[in-house]
Specification:
Elements: E1 23-25, E2 31-33, E3 43-47, H1 54-65, H2 67-71, E4 75-80, H3 84-94, E5 99-102, H4 107-111, E6 115-116, E7 121-122, E8 125-129, E9 135-140, H5 150-158
């Protein structure tokens, strides 16, 4: 697993920064690499706390049901601290179609400054990365129990190039 270090594991990455590259396993235990998309397609990283939790379930169902809505702008990827086995079972149970990545070692979460040490999980946050590999937009939910603003998200996705 390769990760570029960020300045702080709890301070969200800045817009305009080069997105730290990473390789994480997906729910099928295959390596997913951010570098594979640089120069080809924007990426929407949806960091969320935990599989099986109510708000995370609502959001991930929304991303899958509206995959064409969000996926037309970027590759849609969910990242949490859960294992590939949890992701696999959760995807099957919930009928999820988008990619889920396992960051059990919190490497990408920390590299993007989204670590929540008190709970040892990720903050609920969105990081949009342009085709150029730079961070185009970052939004961290102030209240981890609240869903993202999907309208705002779609507005920001539409700006990706």
């Amino acid at each position: 697993m390769t990760i570029a270090a960020a300045s702080s594991e709890t301070t969200p990455i800045a817009v305009g920064a080069v997105a730290p590259d990473f390789t994480l396993p997906d729910s099928e235990k295959k390596d997913w690499k951010l570098a594979d998309f640089v120069g080809k397609k924007p990426v929407a990283l949806f960091f969320y706390p935990l599989d099986w939790s109510p708000t995370c379930a609502k959001e991930n169902v929304c991303f899958s049901q509206d995959l064409s809505r969000f996926g037309k702008y970027a590759e849609v990827v969910g990242i949490s601290v859960d294992s590939v086995w949890s992701h696999q079972a959760w995807k099957e149970k919930m009928g999820l179609r988008h990619t889920l990545l396992s960051d059990m070692h919190r490497k990408a979460i920390k590299a993007y400054g989204l670590f929540l040490p008190a709970a040892n999980i990720s903050q609920r946050a969105t990081v949009l990365i342009g085709k150029d590999g730079k961070v185009a937009w970052v939004h961290v939910e102030a209240d981890i129990t609240k869903e993202r603003d999907y309208s705002l998200l779609e507005t920001e996705l539409a700006k990706l190039k």
